[in-house]
Amino acid sequence: MPQAKFLQLAIPVPLRQLFTYAIPDALLEHSFTVGERVVAPFGHRHVIGIVMAIVDECEFAPNKIKAITNIIEHDQCIPQALIKLLTTCASYYHHPIGDVFHQALPVLLRQVEPPSIAPIIAWQCLPKTEDNAEVLSKLDNKRSKKQWQLYQLLSHHQQLTWPEIRTLGFNKAQLSALENKQLIASVEQLATPFQWHDDALNQENEFTLSTEQAVVVSAISQSIGQYSCHLIDGITGSGKTEVYLQSMTKVLSHHQQVLVLVPEIGLTPQTLSRFEQRFNVPIFLHHSGLNDKERLATWQNANQNNAAIIIGTRSAVFSPLPKLGLIIVDEEHDASFKQQDSFRYHGRDVAIIRAKQLNIPIILGSATPSFESLHNAIKQRYHYHQLTKRAAGSRQAKVSLLDVSNQTLQAGLSLPLKKAISQTLERGEQVLIFLNRRGYSPAINCQECHWVAECTRCQCPYTLHRGQGLLICHHCGSQKRVPAQCDSCGSVRIKPIGQGTEQIEEYLAQTFAQYSTVRIDRDSTRRKGELNKLLQQVLNKEHQILIGTQMLAKGHHFPDVTLVAMLDIDGALFSFDYRAPENMAQLIVQVAGRAGRASKPGKVLVQTQYPQHPLLQDLVNNGYQHFAKQGLNERQMAFLPPFGYQALVRADANYPSYPEKFLRQIATVNFSDCELAGPMPAAIEKRAGKYRFHLLLQAKTRQALHQGVTQVLQSLTNNEWQSKVRWSIDIDPIELSW
Ligand code: ADP
Ligand code: ZN
Ligand code: ZN
Q: Which residue has better confidence, 473 or 205?
């Protein structure tokens, strides 16, 4: 009879420990492996636990130990390398190990009901016959243009999965139409490791690299099979993506897998189709647009080496990839790589940890690298590569400041700006107005008594959404009808104050009535497929005036936009958040990168009340790299990241005194090498009915910070306020205002 052993499990509960379980007699014959999922009783429930270790002894009395209740037959175990990564993340982020697993795995893998292996439906062209050749010849007309395009796309691939087809901008109706015409058919994609074949890599349509590009690709190919981090600092259009593609070719030709991480809304149909055109290998997508089944299928295929390339957002960094040979983080500066709740990891930083553990190269690319990454490049921890010229010959837009300190503004626009807009439109070119605030106005107030409509749950002004006739709180999402009268004095003279994109749209549509105006923000693109539709209309020049938020700063290129105006960036110049200037500069440079082409270079006008402000002057006159170096010097003097290390303890409760007292008690700990700031109320002190407070830990070394956070956690056992608050720890926080 085999010797009874014990299992140490990671259980999805908010406790920073593993749990020991016994093995029931019925399962003694089963040979357990690390990474296997088992069903275990926990409290009154049954949960999925992950076997982290199999041990001979247990410190608890046998009657105190519960036994697991079941195993999951034919489980695809979580690979060792992933367990190692997640364990490192749990200790780096001081986050409960069970919850780290819980969040890193697809939802369906966290359920007690064992998921069946999800088949992936893929589509392929049927062999050409005389019949379908005739059908095909009729397709090529205006009405079925999309079907024709879809057929062309499929004919260039062995198969494409539905998530890929959808991401490329096609719908189910177009697929069914082609299926009914017997041009294409669906197949269950074979769950076998993909076979390398001679035409897996389409190298004939590779560009001849520029010298700058060639240097990077050669450096990366030399580091295949060993850890090295390459920061590509290249202006928009300088050919970073081409460098990624050719570096991927090198790695794929060694039959290794590639992981590409993109920001939240970075995966445009254009980007995906570039990958699809170049690589005739199974590409799997991982982003918020997938349903649970698709996500599971992606995970399983990645795990079984059926996927060659995974392209995904933040959490794709946890994809199981047994033959991973290269990681690429595009737009590495983007804040969406950081998860802002519960397990607050940074996708880019985890990617670097992963590359180190696996001994493989990693590429970070951006037109505006984060100060952290630039610092690492300066310290020669990363290989630093600059791409300074636009590859396709187009020129970078020039940024100028537009002084509005002595101007009267209409709907936030100055007279010189209106003139510039009008001249651009008259030349038949497009205009982009950028304002990072959706809605009609950020507040409404009473003209008589100055009452402001506030969300009582957040004590913040409501944003007016005139189109919907609603006041919406942008902090907690609560809504109410726009009041007809002032709540305080009953006056009907209630007016919007300030501007949001909706108002700018209304004003420009009136002022330039002969042109078509389109607004692209979260409100106008809520429906699935709407964003791609609007973007396509812009590229087709159906609209001349575009108004947009942050969404437009990412990924898209508008060759016929020759004037970009940025409104309301001044807040960043005086923010308490030391990262605000960095973010502002990144935004300006990114937005500038969206516009223009070789024959029509773009112009960017930044409206400001403070044209003499040294930060703006530096950015405009000396460029982003210089700006970043200055910024790094300032951070060095203040021991701010990346020269110091921070952790933020957040706490909230229904009463303000609870979180404050909770943090105050933590602050009494005798920290040897950490400095404290706070407790202080968060910038938005009350949100969704909760009062929020912060305590910031700062240290000069990473080790001292970890020591400090460990002390914080240890002190909690004696913290009488702990049960009265909700608290969290954020290592390397990037958002200090909430
Ligand atoms: P980035 O990713 O830096 O924005 P891309 O790789 O998308 O730049 O390149 C911008 C444009 O230049 C694309 O249309 C691309 O096809 C083209 N391009 C990139 N590299 C080359 C090259 N070596 N020769 C010619 N065109 C190139
Ligand atoms: Zn009033
Ligand atoms: Zn609110």
A: 473
- Report if residue 475 sits inside a domain: no
Mean pLDDT of the chain: 89
Q: Kindly tell me the sign of the dihedral angle through the C-alpha atoms of 213, 214, 219, 224.
A: positive
Which ligand 1 atom sits closest to the C-alpha of 557?
4
Q: DSSP secondary structure string, 190-234? A: P-SPPPP-TTSB-GGGPPPPPHHHHHHHHHHHHTTTS-EEEEEEE
| pLDDT higher than threshold 50 for residue 1 | no
Point out the least confidently predicted range of 131-145, 473-487, 514-528, 601-615.
131-145
Q: Say whether both 571 and 662 belong to one domain.
A: no
pLDDT in tens, 22-38: 998 888 888 898 999 99
User: Distances from the Cα of 292 to the Cαs of 91, 146, 549, in angstroms?
Assistant: 28, 28, 29
- Determine, yes or no, domain membership for 610: yes
Question: What is the residue-wise DSSP string for 488-516?
Answer: TT--S-EEEES--HHHHHHHHHHHTTTS-
Q: Which atom of ligand 1 is nearest to the CA of 236?
A: 4
Distance 688 CA to ligand 3 centre (A): 5
Which of 634, 667, 692 is at the close of a domain? 634
What pLDDT does residue 117 have?
60
Residue 96 maps to which CATH number?
3.40.1440.60
- Residues 102, 140, single domain; the answer is no
Q: In the structure, what pLDDT confidence band is assigned to residue 195 with cuts at 50, 70 and 90?
A: low
Residue 466 maps to a domain: no
Residue nearest to atom 4 of ligand 1 (CA): 237
If you measure from the C-alpha of residue 568 to the centroid of ligand 3, how many angstroms do you get, rounded to a whole number?
Answer: 23
* Residue 703 structure tokens: 């080790």
Whether the per-residue pLDDT at 598 is higher than 70: the answer is no
DSSP string, 696-710: EEEESSHHHHHHHHH
Domain of residue 156: give its range: 121-188
Angle, helix 702-715 to helix 657-667, in steps of 10 degrees = 120
Q: Is the domain of 148 the same as that of 210?
A: no
Protein residues with CB under 6 Å of any ligand 1 atom:
207-210, 213, 234, 236-242, 391-392
| Ligand 1 atom at minimal distance to the Cα of residue 238 | 3
Q: Kindly state whether residue 505 falls inside one of the protein's structural domains.
A: yes
The CATH number of residue 542's host domain is 3.40.50.300
Residues 179 and 203 grouped into a single domain: no
Mutation choice for ligand 1 from 205, 218, 242, 328, CB with most ligand atoms inside 8 A: 242
Confidence of residue 189 (pLDDT cuts 50, 70, 90): low
- Ligand having the closest approach to the CA of 240: 1
How many distinct structural domains can be found in the chain?
Answer: 5
Most confident of 175-184, 396-405, 589-598, 688-697: 688-697
Nearest ligand to the CA of 235 is 1
Quick one: average pLDDT of 553-575? 86
Q: Looking at the structure, tell me whether residues 608 and 522 fall in a common domain.
A: yes
Torsion angle of C-alpha atoms 565, 570, 573, 579, degrees rounded to 10: -70
From the CA of 443, how far away is ligand 2's center (Å)?
A: 14
Q: What is the CATH number of the domain that holds 676?
A: 3.30.70.600
144 and 293 inside one domain: no
Helix (H, G, I), strand (E, B) or coil at 139: helix
- Percent of the chain residues topping a pLDDT of 70: 95
Q: Kindly state whether residues 270 and 357 are assigned to the same domain.
A: yes
Q: What is the pLDDT of residue 372?
A: 96
350 and 206 together in one domain: yes
Has residue 2 got a pLDDT over 60?
Answer: no
